[in-house]
Amino acid sequence: MNKKAFYTELHRDLSALITGEPDLIATFANASALLFERLEAVNWAGFYLLQGDVLVLGPFQGKIACTRIPVGRGVCGTAVKENRIQRIDDVHQFEGHIACDSASNAEIVLPVYQGNNIIAVLDIDSTVFGRFDSDDQHGLENIAALLSQHIS
């Protein structure tokens, strides 16, 4: 299956999974489980919830994670500060990277919105350098948009 078809199927399945669920934590918990189960070569998938100027660990799948990340620090905090997706081929080259799991080598972080405000980030890590390409970014952007629409 090509990536476009994969992400179309993933979007469909996530939509079915979260339809009718009003609780944010339940929605993010099932979304992180689905992403962790379906994405290849991923060692962490989950959410950090924005509380003031700090991202606080939310639902996730994978190893123990950093609990709090200040806005502007690391890949997740930079995504919030710059209000844009961060796709990093080699996290060891990212200035200020926070190594929650030293086995992670690539990362993609996507803002999740309620209206026009970031309320969380979707964070996905991989042990494979360069794991996330533009097709992954586009597919995951649609996943983050689905979550944002569901929340709003």
UniProtKB/TrEMBL annotation:
GO CC annotations on file: cytosol
Residue ranges of domain GAF in the record: 23-152
InterPro entries: GAF, GAF-like_dom_sf, Phosphatase_reg/MetRdx
GO MF assignments: L-methionine-(R)-S-oxide reductase activity
Pfam entry (one): GAF_2
Family recorded in the similarity comment: Belongs to the free Met sulfoxide reductase family.
PANTHER family assigned: FREE METHIONINE-R-SULFOXIDE REDUCTASE, GAF/PUTATIVE CYTOSKELETAL PROTEIN
The name this protein goes by in its record: GAF domain-containing protein
Organism: Limnobaculum xujianqingii
